[in-house]
Amino acid sequence: MLSVENLKVVYRGVILALDGVSLELGDGEAVALLGPNGAGKSSLVRAVAGLLPKFEGRVLDGHVRLMGQEATHMDPVGISRLGLTAILEGRPLFRYLTPVENLMAAGHRLPPKALKEGMEEVFARFPRLYERRHEQAGYLSGGEQQMLVLGMALLTRPKVLVVDEPSLGLSPKLVEEVMRTLDALRREKGLSLLLVEQNARAALSIVDRVYVLERGRVVFEGDAKAAQEDQDVMEFYLGKEEVGFRQSKRYRRRKRWV
Questions:
Q1: What are the Cα distances from residue 10, in Å, to 25, 58, 61, 248?
Q2: Taking Cα atoms as reference points, which of 6, 4, 9, 110 lies closest to residue 52?
Q3: Fewer Cβ atoms within 10 Å of its own Cβ: the N or the C terminal residue of the chain?
Q4: Keyword annotations for this protein (predicted)?
């Protein structure tokens, strides 16, 4: 469904963000892309969504293929028509519009009947969103906004869904709810899901395979079980919890991949 081969991305012609990244996402598969801030995760999202030029970036080398078609330099409209929808970090939505208006904007290409049915499905899945359907989206809570952007994404009828940092700024309870929702949507809709996260524990609970990105390179690739069993990956991204008066994360092991 999505193939990234030896991708190199630069910003403003000099800042190297991705240095030969390769990644594959199969039909109906859920894959996590983990890594710290500055690892290049958002750059990969922008590259596969055709958004790099908006951020003064460009692909220096490599390929992005979507549904078997070359999409390396395709614009966002073309990418969307091929079936990929990306939800960027920060829950982008029209903050001065209501949830109803946001959903109508997202599903503007659907016939009226299909749009109505799609909105009903979104509100049935997210009852709290229905209760606040006529309020400005900017006044919704972080969790409600995340549900709204997921609903907007569904109305684009995606085959591949890329979600960048959906847990950002949410409470642990809401993070669990968002992950359950993503897992349910993937299974019910037959979507291929690329989940870009720093919250490794949350991401590993719903994915099949994992890539770890650091300094623009893939430093680990394997299934979710292998990642959970890898002491370097788990300690660096989850830490060792010390039990006692002060609980904290410690990183005693040195990353052997650097």
A1: 23, 6, 10, 36
A2: 9
A3: C
A4: Amino-acid transport, ATP-binding, Nucleotide-binding, Transport
158: nearest Cα among 49, 4, 7, 47: 49
Q: For residue 61, which of 51, 77, 73 has the smallest C-alpha distance?
A: 73
Q: For the chain, what is the mean pLDDT?
A: 85
Contacts of 76 (CB under 8 A, 6+ apart): 49, 50, 51
* pLDDT per residue as tens digits for the range 110-168: 999 999 999 999 999 888 899 999 999 999 988 889 889 999 999 999 999 999 888 88
Confidence at 238, pLDDT banded by 50, 70, 90: low
Joined together, the tokens standing for residue 59 give: 């692909």
Unique residue bearing structure tokens 């989206």: 137
Sequence-separated (6 or more) residues with CB below 8 Å from residue 26: 1, 192
Whole-angstrom distance, CA of residue 54 vs CA of residue 77: 13
Global pTM value: 0.85
How far apart are alpha carbons 192 and 89 in whole angstroms? 19
Does residue 230 contact residue 222 with C-beta atoms inside 8 Å? yes
